[in-house]
Design a protein that fits this description.
CATH architecture of the largest domain: 3-Layer(aba) Sandwich
Largest sheet: 5 strands, parallel
CATH class of the largest domain: Alpha Beta
Helix content: 40-55%
């Protein structure tokens, strides 16, 4: 009976691989990879000639039984396109199938974009939650963000460059002053870690390029919620004193414990009445 090894590979810099990972990759009968082109570059760099098989969302239904059959006779390594396999990639399905079939599954720890971004963000890394890759549809993204509005733990998520601006705008609509770390191209030549408010991050990334990991500071401690009438009265007062929309909504939301979107809706009602 063979063993399925979950081998973490570099997220950019090819030096970020362990000696144990290299040994395992040289000893297994075959390597299942999410992206064979990326993995081939790594294997060529370290002169590893093992058989390479693709395992991705397009072929995993057909490939899973083939790999389980291979495990009957020999060891197999599973690698992601980058980082630790089975985190937001199809490798998870193979892990589950191997466990159910009774094969040993052994992790070979190493690089992880999630952990790299979390520890460099400066936010609380003792408790966190990962949302994986964020939804592509705006409505689904908005609902997901609303569900984690009161999340006290640090929140980590992955995003593509062509959707980054949209995502930052959606987050800004809910929590413009929440602190965020936007980590780009981790361990690569153009690595960047931007730390600031969501509003500042949205302004900073004009033409984003590369791979992004977002780390959002957890929500502040619960504040006793004021009544809707109290909120309206405070908003009326701020309107009459000439406060700007963003400042008024932020101040009242923080002072009353009411959700930012709720206070903003009340502000619109008040200001549109004249």
């Amino acid at each position: 009976m063979g063993t399925l090894y979950l081998v973490a590979t570099p997220i950019g810099n090819l030096e970020d691989i362990t000696l144990r990972a290299l040994r395992v990759l040289k000893e297994v009968a075959a390597i299942a990879a999410e992206d064979t082109r990326t993995t081939r570059k790594l294997l060529n760099h370290y002169q590893i000639r093992q058989r390479l098989l693709s395992y991705n969302e397009h072929n995993m239904r057909a490939r899973t039984p083939q790999l389980l059959a291979l495990l009957k006779e020999a060891d197999l390594a599973l690698v992601s396109e980058a980082g630790t396999p089975a985190i937001s990639d199809p490798g998870h399905d193979l892990v589950v199938a191997a466990i159910r079939a009774g094969y040993p599954v052994v992790p070979i720890p190493g690089a992880s974009a999630l952990l790299a971004a979390l520890v460099v963000s400066g936010f609380d890394a003792r408790r966190f939650t990962c949302l994986g890759f964020l939804p592509r549809r705006a409505g689904e993204l908005r609902r997901l963000l609303q569900r984690v509005e009161a999340e006290r733990r640090t929140v980590v998520a992955f995003e593509s460059p062509h959707r980054l601006r949209r995502t930052l705008d959606e987050i800004r609509a809910l929590w413009p002053e929440r602190r965020i770390a936007v980590c780009r191209e981790m361990t690569k030549a153009f690595e960047e870690v931007f730390r600031g408010t969501v509003t500042e991050a949205a302004a900073h990334f004009d033409e984003p390029r590369g791979e992004f990991t977002l780390v959002l500071e957890g929500a502040a401690a619960d504040v006793p919620k004021a009544s809707i009438e109290d909120v309206r009265n405070e908003l009326f007062h701020l309107r009459d004193t000439g406060a700007k929309s963003r400042d008024a909504v932020r101040r009242v939301a923080e002072a009353t414990g009411r959700p930012h979107r709720e206070v903003y809706r009340l502000w619109l009602e008040i200001t549109q009445r004249g």
